[in-house]
């Protein structure tokens, strides 16, 4: 995608005649896909009636909360 920005006005500086260039500045934004891995590990052994502890590990830090659904 691209972003195009133009000067729509300028004041100040004590200039007699400040004339802004209205030619747009155009920036192209390149979004690259950032693959992130998710691995699941668990307790190797537990006692009957005990709880299994699962650990989900991401290969990159999350910027928002992550929900992992198990089945």
Describe this structure in words.
By secondary structure, the chain is mainly β. 0% of the residues lie in helices and 25% in strands. The protein has one domain (1-70). It has strands spanning 2-5, 25-28, 38-42, 54-58. It has a two-stranded antiparallel sheet with strand order 1-2. Strands 3-4 form a two-stranded antiparallel ribbon. The protein is rod-shaped and about 85 Å long. The mean pLDDT is 94.
Give me some keywords for this one.
mainly beta, single chain, two-stranded antiparallel ribbon, 4 strands, 71 residues
Q: What is the secondary structure topology, with strand pairs?
A:
Elements: E1 2-5, E2 25-28, E3 38-42, E4 54-58
Antiparallel strand pairs: 1-2, 3-4
Counted beta strands: 4
Low-confidence stretches: none
Main sheet makeup: 2 strands, antiparallel
Q: What is the helix tally?
A: 0
| Percentage of β-strand residues | 25-35%
Order of adjacent strands in the largest pleated sheet:
1-2
Could you tell me how far the N terminus lies from the C terminus, measured between alpha carbons in angstroms? 39 Å
Mean residue pLDDT: 94
Provide the structure class. Answer: mainly beta
Quick overview of this protein structure:
With 71 residues, this protein is mainly beta. It has strands at 2-5, 25-28, 38-42, 54-58.
């Amino acid at each position: 995608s691209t972003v195009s920005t133009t000067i729509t006005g300028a004041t100040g500086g004590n200039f007699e005649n400040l004339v802004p260039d209205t030619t747009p500045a155009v920036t192209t934004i390149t979004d690259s896909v950032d693959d992130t891995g998710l691995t699941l590990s668990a307790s190797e052994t537990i006692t009957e009636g005990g709880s299994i502890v699962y650990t989900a590990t991401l290969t990159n830090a999350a910027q928002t909360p992550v929900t992992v659904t198990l089945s």
